Amino acid sequence: MRSILSASRAIARQPTCTSRFQRNTLPTIATRGYAMSRPAPKLNDPSLLKDKTYVNGEWIGAKSGKTFEVHDPATGEVIGTMPEFDRADTEAAIAAAQAALPSFRKTTGRERSRLLRKWYQLMMDNADDLAKLITWENGKPLADANGEVTYAANFFEWFAEEAPRLNGATIPSSVPGNRIFTIKEPVGVVGLITPWNFPAAMVTRKIGPALAAGCTVVAKSPGETPFTAAALAELAHRAGIPKGVINIVTSDKNTPELGKTITTSPAVKKVSFTGSTGVGKLLMTDSSSTLKKLSFELGGNAPFIVFDDADLDAAVAGAVASKFRSSGQTCVCANRIYVQSGLYDRFVEKLAEKVRGFKVGYGTDEGVTHGPLISEKAIKKVTEHVSDAVSKGAQVVIGGSPLRDLGARFFEPTVIRDMKPGMKIASEETFGPVAGIFRFDTEAEVVALANDTDVGLAGYFFSRDVERVYRIAEALEVGMVGVNTGLISDPAAPFGGVKESGFGREGSVMGIDEYVVTKMVTLGNNGQPLQGSS
Ligand code: SIN
C-alpha cells in the first residue's frame, strides 16, 4: 500500500511558497470531481513550508529544474511542488553525506545527544505548525497529527538519551594474557526511505538512531508527503546539525531511480526502509550488490483476537484504536478481527455503535475524527475488499461505501460481520477503515487462522486468563504483540516484524544497534597471564 513506486504524476513548473499560501484563491479542479478547495494552513512560522529540499546544508532544487506536484488528499488539489531529483542529484546528496562522515563520526555521544535534544525541543516548540503540515499533506485529523508530532519528537528525545551510552564490552579471552574488548562504531552513510502514512514519525524513528550512532544520512521523503520532512530538515539546520549530516532527497516519478541509486551506491553502508513487502524485496535485491546492512519494516496483516474471557468494552476500544487509527492506514492496524462465539454478536454491535460516532471530513474541521485516504487507488482497494466480502456472504453492519459528496478519497468507516477465510480481507492488507469480523470457536482454531499468512508484523488479543496470555503471546508469529491494548507504538518499544514483514528493530534501546557495527579488539600480551590469575 505504501509503495514508494507511487503512480507517476505530471511534472509541473515550481510555484513559489507564496503561491502556495494563496492556494485558497485558486479554482477547484472541478473536472476531477473533488470537493471544494481548502485554505492552505496558516503557519506561525511560514518559513517552515519549503518548495526546495535540503542537501549539504542548503536548500536546493533538482539540477534538471524539474519538480513534482503534491496533492491535498482531501481535495485532490495541487498544494505545491518539490524538486524531482534524479540519479545525479541523489549521488550528490550521498557525496555530501560521505564528506560529512569523518568529522561527525568523531563527535562524542554527548555532543550528538545535545544536537538531538535541541532538535527535539524545536519540534515541540513548532508542534502546531508541524501538525498543520501533516494534516495538509496526509489528511489525518489535526488531533492525530498533533499526536504524531509528539510521537515523532519522542524518538529524538529517546535517542538523545541513548547516544552517550553506546557501550562496548570487555570479554575474558581464551588465550592466557590476552584482553578482548569491543567498540560500537557508526556503520557509515545510511540511506533511509520513509512512507507517507507518518510523514514525521517514520523520519525521526530512522534519523534519531542514525545520528545517535554517528552516521550521516540520505533520507528519501515520500512523494505524497514531502513537506513535513522538509520542515524537520529546517529545524535540524536551526538545531546546529552540521552540513552534510542530513540530506533529504525528494521525488515522485523518479522514486525507483532514487531507490536504486541509494541501494547500489558503494558509499551507502546501510538502508532502512518502511513500506510494502514487494518494494522491500526489490530494495533487498539491489542492496545485495554491495552487501549492505538492512532493516526493513514491511507490510502487515494483523490479527486482532477477542476471547470470550475478554473485557468486552476494552476489546472494543482496542479495536477502534487499532483498526481505525489514521483511517486504517498504518501497517500495524488490525486487519482480521477474530471474535469468539460467546462475545461475537455483542462485540459487533458495540463496535458498530462506536463507529456510528465517528465524524469523517477534512482533517482541520472541528470534531472530525477520520480524514480521507491517501489516494483514489486506496479507495478502489477498500471498495474491492468490501464488495468481495459481501459477494461471498458477509454483511455490512455500518458503512461500506465511498463518501463521494466529501470528495474522491473519502470512505465510510465500515464494520462487516460474518467474514470467512476465503475473503480478500483474510489474506490482504486493506489499509483502510474496514473492520471485517470473523467468528471462531477454539483457541487452536484462531491461532492457526492468525498465523496463516506470509507476514508477521503486529498481532493483538484480549483475554483475562493469565495462562492464555502467555500461551497466545508466544504462539503468534509476529514481531509485536498487544495484549489487552490496541496501541503498541512507543519510542521505548522495539518495533519490527518477522516473516515477510521484514527484520530489524526501530525505536527502543535496540534501535541504535541497526546503525552500528561492533569492532572487536584483541590485545596480546606475549602469553603473560593476567595480573592476579593463577
Ligand atoms: C507504520 O505504519 O509504519 C508505523 C506505525 C506506528 O509507528 O505506529
Automatic annotation (TrEMBL):
All copies of domain Aldehyde dehydrogenase, residue ranges: 59-521
Top-tier EC class: oxidoreductase
Catalysed reactions, semicolon-separated: succinate semialdehyde + NADP(+) + H2O = succinate + NADPH + 2 H(+); succinate semialdehyde + NAD(+) + H2O = succinate + NADH + 2 H(+)
GO molecular function, one term: succinate-semialdehyde dehydrogenase (NAD+) activity
Keyword flag Cytoplasm: no
Gene Ontology CC annotation, any one: cytoplasm
Short name of one Pfam family: Aldedh
Catalytic residue list: 297
GO biological process, one term: gamma-aminobutyric acid catabolic process
Domain of life: Eukaryota
Keywords assigned by UniProt, alphabetized: Oxidoreductase
Known pathway: Amino-acid degradation; 4-aminobutanoate degradation
E.C. code: 1.2.1.16
Family: Belongs to the aldehyde dehydrogenase family.
Name assigned to this protein: Succinate-semialdehyde dehydrogenase
Gene source species: Aaosphaeria arxii CBS 175.79
